[in-house]
Amino acid sequence: MAKNLIINNIFKRNFSSTNALSRKINSVSVVGSGLMGSGIAQVTAEAGYSVYLIDQNQNALDKAMKSIQNSLTRSTKKRFNKEPDHAERYIKDTMDRIQATTELDSGAEKSDLIIEAIVENIQAKHDLFSKLDSISPKETIFTSNTSSLPITEIAQSVNRKDRFGGLHFFNPVPVMKLLEVIKTHETSDATYKTLLEYGLSIGKTTVECKDTPGFIVNRLLVPYMFEAVKMYERGDASFQDIDTAMKLGAGYPMGPFELLDYVGLDTSKFIIDGWRKRYPNDSTFQSSPVIDQLVSEGRLGRKTGEGFYNYKK
Ligand SMILES: C[C@H](O)CC(=O)SCCNC(=O)CCNC(=O)[C@H](O)C(C)(C)COP(=O)(O)OP(=O)(O)OC[C@H]1O[C@@H](n2cnc3c(N)ncnc32)[C@H](O)[C@@H]1OP(=O)(O)O
Ligand SMILES: NC(=O)c1ccc[n+]([C@@H]2O[C@H](COP(=O)([O-])OP(=O)(O)OC[C@H]3O[C@@H](n4cnc5c(N)ncnc54)[C@H](O)[C@@H]3O)[C@@H](O)[C@H]2O)c1
């Protein structure tokens, strides 16, 4: 209660002085149905929005719908433990609000908000947004869930730069309470207000971020994870002991290697490689031979069943 009051006061402080009117959001398209897109679609549908979950790959969509169903079953078991009928109805209603499709147009033409959660690659994001810009209504707001790319740079491929911002979710989306909302120097106040309102409407606590590398969380978290890998590569400790140490000695829910496997080693590599290209003189962003090797072997972490740890057993 007190927390909500603080959030509302921050919200009022920042926006009561502007006359910006937020836009009503009814329908949301989530493009990319992997680890993040499936979670974003789930929490958005749970909040009552009608959702198009779009992916170029039908298998990814099938996997996403299964994972949403499992995640809802898990969360409703406790929430409605004495009312199984209610839980069943809640799951059905939520699933019914999500339309999974490989047709980009079918969602983009009808959505008020588009959240992109495809692979962490600037060219792929540019190609997607330039298509979306030509098929979406001009009022539709575009956002990216990028972990590390500048929102301003992603927005270069569209004309609607005032209706473009960042919505950075955390994994697992249904559980993690934070949403980073990113404003570029071209994002309009009305767009930004709409994005903050959307964040609150899906039950997240929002923080306001500038378009700086890694925003708030990843600028601190990613160098920490790669520092742990360097420690392991030097032979200072086993990765299992580093994980145990950080969980029991620093109170983290997961150690850095468990977290790398959880985020995906490919995504982690994309992030560090991208930052190193941009900031070649900053030693924080050095590559990791061990991660490069695991990625080249297709051992990407939990999503492939193996990374630093083996999840197939
Ligand atoms: C790189 C990117 O850009 C940014 C990022 O995303 S960085 C990554 C950020 N994420 C983190 O740091 C995650 C750190 N890990 C954790 O917080 C925890 O280990 C965890 C929440 C993932 C799992 O928690 P843990 O206690 O170990 O396991 P578990 O007991 O299975 O789950 C805890 C609760 O979450 C729920 N849960 C876990 N995963 C879930 C999912 N996918 N869907 C729904 N519910 C889920 C469980 O049902 C359980 O709920 P309950 O407390 O009501 O019973
Ligand atoms: N993994 C994390 O913990 C995490 C957390 C926050 C943000 N992110 C960011 O979210 C984005 C997605 O990450 P992820 O971990 O969900 O990736 P993922 O590999 O699990 O899923 C990406 C999905 O996008 C689909 N895709 C690729 N190109 C597409 C296109 N042009 N059109 C439609 N679908 C396409 C793929 O088929 C795949 O299903 C990345 O930008 C990543 O940096 C990831």
UniProtKB/TrEMBL annotation:
Binding-site residues for CoA, renumbered to this chain: 71, 78, 147
One GO cellular component, as annotated: mitochondrial matrix
Site keyed Important for catalytic activity: positions: 168
Protein localization: Mitochondrion matrix
Keywords in alphabetical order: Acetylation, Differentiation, Fatty acid metabolism, Hydroxylation, Lipid metabolism, Mitochondrion, NAD, Oxidoreductase, Spermatogenesis, Transit peptide
Domain of life where this protein originates: Eukaryota
Residues bound to NAD(+): 32-37, 55, 120, 125, 147, 171, 303
Protein name: Hydroxyacyl-coenzyme A dehydrogenase, mitochondrial
Organism taxonomic ancestry: Eukaryota, Metazoa, Spiralia, Gnathifera, Rotifera
